[in-house]
Design brief:
This protein is of the alpha+beta class. The protein has helices at 5-23, 93-106, 168-178, 186-204, 275-281, 289-306, 341-344, 351-359, 371-384, 395-399, 406-418; strands at residues 28-37, 40-47, 50-56, 64-70, 74-80, 148-149, 152-153, 157-161, 166-167, 232-233, 242-247, 260-264, 271-272, 323-327, 333-337. The longest helix is centred in the N-terminal third of the chain and has 19 residues, at 5-23. This is Putative serine threonine protein kinase protein.
Amino acid sequence: MATSEGAKAEQRRLGLEVATYFTSTLKYNFVGFAGIGRHGGALILRERATTTEGEASGQGQEQGQWKGEVEGRTLVIKYSHGRLASARDASDADEDLRNEHRVLTRLRGAEHIVQLVPMADCSLRIPGMSDGEGTYGRGGEGEGEGEVTDRGRRCPTFALEYLPGGTITKFRMRVRRHTKLTWLPSRLLWRIWLCMVRQCVAMAFPPDIPEERYVAGNLTRETLKPRPYTNLTQNSAHADNFMFGLESQIPGLEHEPKLPVLKLIDFGRGKIESERRSLRHLPNNPDEFGSRLNLFNASWVMMKVCCINIRENKPFDLVRPAVTYRWDGPEPGEMQTLAPAIFREHPTVDPQLRTLLVRLMPEYLSNTLPLEDVLRETATAVANKGEDDPTLYTPAGRELPIIESDDFIKELIQKVVYNAD
């Protein structure tokens, strides 16, 4: 059901009250909404520039005092206000927010996961409006639930890094708007997909950095670990929850030429899958159930990236009952898949990538590839497939012709990510 204009106006009003709490301290400027809904949302704030003074010395500088402004960070503030926006609609928004913070704390330091930002003005200990929920500690003497003061509304909040490149949804729209392309280079698709696989690795092996060892801003690339998998799942995989950030600061070919890191966001529904469910779906190796479910969901979103020219959602619906898919190559085979025809029959995507993604959307997760194999195949393709690799091209791709050069990919990303509106 579409949200009425009145409800949207009320959601915006409540969000602005939360923003006022931060802007009233004179430390932040309100930039806009990153997202807004019935029970909470996400604000974009920018720290106000600070004046810095110091001693000027050294070659090419006059000795003495200097004064300059240091530009503030741009941050995202997630907030919840429970049932406040709709008294008839029960909400777990406060618990979702707490849960997301717990999950993201486990994932601190993972390169392809959105990162928490320590911020003294945020607190999860401020009561929300979840119908009198009493599980929050009091934020201070005399503070009530969702209290509104001259400084704005106090709600449970935490801060996240700002990802300037936008979502996969916006990426698809920008490609259609700013280019005449009906395809994307497969070398770019492999790199985007490797980011998604790294996200699955992070959830299978969370960094779990102890508080005393955690350093904000320090990131590491996600790798498989010699320990049991963690059955952590994100459970909200859609194109708006994959966002492009900045260029990677970690050396390597994965994000070349100068590609932004794709990060996974929104862990409000993140959870450790139950042993019972894991055994039911994957009786022989239940510890890998979460990673295979995450790969299934990621491959469905990646399918949309590959089908850049398809605007409608209906063609991406999973096929039920499953259909038979056959593939050739060094290890030919067949399987029952839920992948839709729009992708199974895609005419221009590297056939190896197409087959890999289709195999990750099986009728039963016991019939799919393990995370270890997916990471190996994807990383190998990224490292070894140069622009002249004949396996990248289908007959239809050669006719267009598809361009796989670094220069073309760099120019495309500059246009639709770095310079986009």
